[in-house]
Design a protein that fits this description.
The complex is a heterodimer of chains A (113) and B (113).
Chain A lengths: L2 E4 L4 E4 L4 E3 L1 E4 L6 E6 L5 E7 L5 E4 L2 E4 L9 E3 L8 E7 L9 E2 L3 E6 L1
Parallel strand pairs in A: 2-12
Antiparallel strand pairs in A: 1-4, 3-9, 5-6, 5-10, 7-8, 8-9, 10-11, 10-12
Chain B lengths: L3 E4 L2 E4 L5 E7 L5 E8 L3 E8 L6 E2 L7 E3 L5 E6 L8 E8 L8 E2 L3 E5 L1
Parallel strand pairs in B: 2-11
Antiparallel strand pairs in B: 1-3, 3-8, 4-5, 4-9, 5-6, 7-8, 9-10, 9-11
The chains are: A mainly beta (113), B mainly beta (113).
Chain lengths: 113, 113
């Protein structure tokens, strides 16, 4: 079945530092890939997605490239802000008849001024 | 745009009491989901629905029931609450198809004492 391996946090960075959160996946075929973000006290929000190999999803300064050769979808941002402090989830869409999105464990990011 | 609205936002129950959590979406989405989020456990799917009048079990359905009488609403019931059901509950909805992400509600924090 599908699986997502995401780096464990927490990750603590200074403001304006470069961010990478690793995500690798196991799946049949070439599914769409997603990153979600959860700010404190809120629900998850879709941050970005890529629907086919070599696609780059981007939003709010974050980027992730769908790499089928390494089955990876790493999240990057060139210069993080305090407001980026949140938990980030990598995810695979439902497959087969069981409508269950496969979420990674979540990586908590704390950005300090 | 309201998106996905969950009520209530907070609730404290005594063991053995019952309650219903309401989820409403205004995006005409076919699919709706109930998740619970617990520290160290990630997001776990409780029940889901692929259309009005349909429901199905997810990973952790025991102790919960659901109904989807109207397309826009998805209700989660706890018939006899237990302390193990203390959690944050999230509702989500999506269009059908695997390239669409989820839209999440802001969550219900439930404590069973």
């Amino acid at each position: 079945g599908n699986s997502v391996t995401q780096m464990e946090g927490p990750v603590t960075l200074s403001e304006e530092a470069f961010l990478t959160i690793n995500c690798t996946y196991t799946a049949t075929g070439y599914p769409s890939l997603f990153w979600y973000v959860q700010y404190p006290g809120e629900g998850l929000q879709l941050l970005l997605k890529a629907t086919k190999a070599d696609d780059k999803g981007s939003n709010k300064g974050f980027e992730a490239t769908y790499r089928k050769e390494t089955t990876s979808f790493h999240l990057e941002k060139g210069s993080v802000q305090v407001s980026d402090s949140a938990v980030y989830f990598c995810a695979l869409p439902p497959s087969g008849g069981y409508q269950k999105v496969t979420f990674g464990i979540g990586t908590k990011l704390q950005v300090i001024p | 745009n309201a998106g996905v609205t969950q009520t209530p936002k907070f609730r404290v129950l005594k063991t053995g009491q019952s309650m219903t959590l309401l989820c409403a979406q205004d995006m005409n989405h076919e699919y709706m989901y109930w998740y619970r989020q617990d520290p160290g456990m990630g997001l776990r799917l409780i029940h889901y629905s692929v259309g009005e009048g349909t429901t199905a079990k997810g990973e952790v359905p025991d102790g919960y029931n659901v109904s989807r009488l109207k397309k826009q609403n998805f209700l989660l019931g706890l018939e006899s609450a237990a302390p193990s059901q203390t959690s944050v509950y999230f509702c989500a909805s999506s269009q059908s198809g695997t390239s669409y992400g989820y839209t999440f509600g802001s969550g219900t924090r439930l404590t069973v004492v």
